Amino acid sequence: MSRVIQPVPLLEGRREWFLFFSATLLILGIHLAWLHWQYRDLLAKPFYYTWATVLKEIPHHSGKKSYHILKLRSVKGMDFYTRSYRHQALQGQRVRLELFPSKRISFIDYLKGPYISSRILEKAPASKGLKTRIARLIDRQHRDKEMADFYRGIFLADPLPSALRDRIAALGVSHLVALSGFHLGIIWGMIFLLLRPLYRLLQRRWFPWRYELVDLGSLSLLLLGGYLWLTGIPPSLLRSYVMLVLGWSAVLLGVELLSFRFLLITGAIILALDPVLLVSMSFWLSMTGVFFIFLLLRYFGHLPEWIVGGVILPIGVFWLMLPVGHSLFPSVNPWQFLSPLLSLLFVPFYPLAILLHLLGAGGILDEVLSRLFTLPLDSETVEKILPSWVLWGYGVTALLSIRYRWIFLLLLMEGLIAAGWLYGA
């Protein structure tokens, strides 16, 4: 009788857990101390000069005045916001600023990304790097600027215009246009499928003793690292890459991967390496999403794979995330029920879109996408938000669901009740 080797937990026993958390807390403390020193250094000067890249540009109006709120990242990696009265597009540009930090900025504000008054002194010449050349290649394949913006967002992590971003949010698919582990996973799969036939051909002839997962996995991670550099290393993509590396390492070592313990370990390592994520809503939302995936696999993992991957996960994650998302974001639109279907369709769409752009035919699907993005305009988006106590109670229920099946059923019922309140008449 053959025996299946079961994966082992990465950490076992109180001693190993104590040593792990002691090490992560030490690293976290050192990083926080370093960030606090940078924070105090920022407030120590009445003004200073820096170069920064404009990540996002949001138009605002106040009476007869119009201005833009800019989100920038300095050359030292600090994210901050400022106001600009310049009537010219600055998104994606490098600018030199004179900053006037206020003494009222708290350390928490600094970690989140503070607002800092500034004066823009000059704009750098347009970059001619690889990312810029790829962006121009994408632009040339689309007559509709919104479509070009959309593809630059899902390929190069460029920020979307606020109007397009709001319509995509009304469809409930903001997670599909913000580069994350979902996109890295699809690209990883593409690399494997493309390289596996060639690798196996060479393996049989030259190196039959080699292990496919090690070689192709290493090459895939190297290529994904290059892609990470190309996109400018956005924080959301960086943490997804770290999780991918840890997950791949766990598979090679025979360590238990799809477990809440591994999720806890991964989250602790990422926070220790980048304490700014302690106050990052996107980080906690992504961790919550993965938590719900593991929870669904715990109770439905015995079903056929096509049912789990094609039905349970897309619908289940959407259902369970409803109370979380709508405790933080108030926009409610009935078209958000398309989210599970669109998430499924995105899996074949993403590699197809990459292939079409490589062939110079990226605009083929523009009309279909344009119609999709205008669907929310046909119905009213209302503002509804769940009270914070609902979120806390829901979180406790979710944690208890790990151990008790009946509480998991209660969790599903809470999600259904929240959906009824949000989308009911």
What does this protein structure show overall?
- The strands form two sheets. Strands 3-2-1-4-5 form a five-stranded antiparallel beta sheet.
- It has helices at residues 13-44, 107-112, 130-140, 145-156, 162-170, 174-177, 181-206, 212-230, 235-253, 260-273, 281-300, 305-328, 339-358, 366-374, 388-400, 405-423; strands spanning 48-62, 65-74, 79-84, 94-100, 117-123, 331-332, 382-383.
- The chain is built from 16 helices and seven strands.
- The longest helix is centred in the first third of the chain and has 32 residues, at 13-44.
- The model has no long low-confidence stretch (mean pLDDT 86).
- Helix content is 60%, strand content 12%.
- It has two domains: 45-123, OB fold (Dihydrolipoamide Acetyltransferase, E2P); 174-423, no CATH class.
- The chain has 425 residues and is α+β, with helices and mostly antiparallel strands.
Comma- or semicolon-separated keywords:
425 residues, alpha+beta, OB fold (Dihydrolipoamide Acetyltransferase, E2P), 5-stranded antiparallel β-sheet, two-stranded antiparallel ribbon, globular, transmembrane helix
